[in-house]
Amino acid sequence: xxxxxxxxxxxxxxxxxxxxxxxxxxxxxxxxxxxxxxxxxxxxxxxxxxxxxxxxxxxxxxxxxxxxxxxxxxxxxxxxxxxxxxxxxxxxxxxxxxxxxxxxxxxxxxxxxxxxxxxxxxxxxxxxxxxxxxxxxxxxxxxxxxx
Length: 147
Hints:
Blueprint: E1 12-13, E2 20-21, H1 24-64, H2 74-108, H3 113-131
Antiparallel strand pairs: 1-2
Helix pairs in contact: 1-2, 1-3
C-alpha cells in the first residue's frame, strides 16, 4: 500500500519492491544510503559546475588571443576538441546528476519521515562540504531541486 501522508515507520519500500526494510538495522542502512546518495548528488553538481566554469574561462581566454597570420590552424582544432570533450563530460555529468535527483525525489515520495529527513540532511551536508565555499561558481544554477 502506498502512503499518501507522511508516516514514521521502520517498514518502508524504497524505489523498487526488492528494497524493503522490516527491521531497525535495514532501515538505518537505508537512511544512511539516502544521506550518502544525496551528498553525492551535491558533489557531482559541484564538479559539473566547476567544469563548466573552467571551460567557459578557457573559452574566453582562447577567444581573446588573436591568431597571427603565420600560425597554423591545426592547434585551433586541438583547442576545439578539448572544449568539445569538456562539453561531453559536462553533459554526461548533467545526465547522471539528473537521474540521481529524480531517484531522490522518488525516494522522498515514499512519504517516510526518516527517508525525507535523511535526504534533506544529506543534501545539506553535501552543500556544506562541496558547494558552500565555492564563490566562483553560482550556488544555485537551476532552482529545480531535481535538475
